[in-house]
Each structure stands twice: as C-alpha cells, then as structure tokens.
C-alpha cells in the first residue's frame, strides 16, 4: 500500500513538473529543435532580451496588474466593510451572492459581457478607439474585487466589536475608529487580497483578449500571438524565466515565513 501511494505521488509530480523541466532544458537547445538536443546555448535568451515588444508587453502587464490590484483592494476592502456591517441577513446574503458571480462565471462569459458593455458605451459616445488600457483596467478591477473581498471578510469576522465601540466612547469618530483600530487588524487580509488581485491580473488572458486593443498588449496576449502559428524558442526562454522568478519568490516567502515561525517559537 505504501508503494502504491509513493508511486501515485511520483506520477502526479511527473505530470506537473516534467513538462516544465522539458521546457527549461530545450530553452537552452542550440539547434532550436524539439527532436534532439544539439548543444547548450543562450542564443534564445539573447533573442528574447533583444525583443523590445516583449519588454513593452511585460511593462504593460505590470502597470495594469499594479493599478488594477490597488484599485480593487481599495474598493474591495470598503465593500467588505459595508457587507460586514449590514444588519439585514437576507440583503447581506443577496449582496454576497451577487459579489461572487464574477468568480463563478467562466472567464469567456465575463470577457464577452465586458466587451459588449464597452461596445455599447463606445456607440453611445461615438468613439472609434475606445478599447485599450482603460477598458482592460475596468475589466481587471471588476474580476479582482470579489477575490479581495473574499480575503478581507474573514478578518472582519475575527474582529472584536468592543474595540471599535471603546474607541468611539473615548472620542473617536466611526471613521477614525476604523482607521485607528480596525484597519491595522485587517492588514494581513488586505495584503492577501492585493497579492491575489495582482496575480489574477498578471495571469489573465481570456478576459484581456476580449477587451484589449493592438495599441496595448499584455504579456499573456504577446505570448499567445507569438505561439499562435509557429512557436518561437524565445518563448521557451521567456517561460523559463517566469518559472525561475516564481520559484525565487516562493523560496523567499517560505524562508521568511519559516524564520518568523522560529522566532515566535523561541519567544
């Protein structure tokens, strides 16, 4: 039984990581062929770093992800606050269900819906070049807000109501009590929501595909356009770099978390 469990885990890990390993290995293949490995070379990485369009797409993705995550975090945090303070259980449940719709919807449904909305708005204002950064920002903020609220709501539920009441008894206004007492307690949830919104925006392709324009192209759209017909080996290099960056971030986060846990254990 123990052998079967280990064999099963080995198959799972092979299916997950073997394609990534092949990708990284062949990103250094000198011949640019998947049939044989002719020799080690960094030519495809040089080609990638010489590609200005790739770096422009990367900067566009980062700008869009940071902007949409920041806006979605602000809106989502105050949305979670309003939802937390609702007194009617039925209205609270209805609003919560409506808020979760973007998470439950398939991306293609959300993308088509946003595209039709922007087309209608463009028709009303008689604009010929309506799609671009603005439409992508609105779309990314829209699908990021529910994830932020999902991260922040548990923090509000863990709050002790008497702390805010005590602050107001001591002369704080409700707004000041929120920023002085409640906000520091929900910071971990806000940071989680911010990182989740940033990741969702950086990774999104389907919704961006429907609301983008040729003038503003994100990295997922660039990779898709490059691999739609013949796969360029510089895309193998790009994918390998993305995997390496994610791996470094995960190691750093785990190391920091482990260090913090050790310090707490010592205390």
Count of strand segments: 0
Helix and strand content put the structural class at mainly alpha
Q: What general form does the structure show?
A: globular
The biggest beta sheet is recorded as: none
Q: What is the C-alpha radius of gyration, as a whole number of Å? A: 23 Å
Work out the strand percent.
under 5%
Our measurement of the CA-to-CA distance between the termini, rounded to an integer number of angstroms, reads 41 Å
Q: Mean pLDDT score, rounded?
A: 83
Task: Provide the low-confidence segments as ranges.
Answer: none
Bin the helical content.
over 70%
In DSSP terms (H or I, runs of 4 or more residues), the helix count works out at: 12
- Spell the H/E element sequence: HHHHHHHHHHHH
Give a quick rundown of the structure.
By secondary structure, the protein is mainly alpha-helical.
Task: Summarize this structure as a short list of keywords or feature phrases.
single chain; 267 residues; mainly alpha; 12 helices
Outline the structure in words.
By secondary structure, the chain is an all-alpha fold. It has helices spanning 2-26, 43-49, 52-84, 89-99, 101-104, 107-125, 133-158, 161-169, 174-203, 206-211, 219-227, 233-266. Helix 3 crosses helix 11 (219-227), helix 7 (133-158) crosses helix 9 and helix 8 (161-169) crosses helix 9. The longest helix is centred in the last third of the chain and has 34 residues, at 233-266. It is globular. The mean pLDDT is 83.
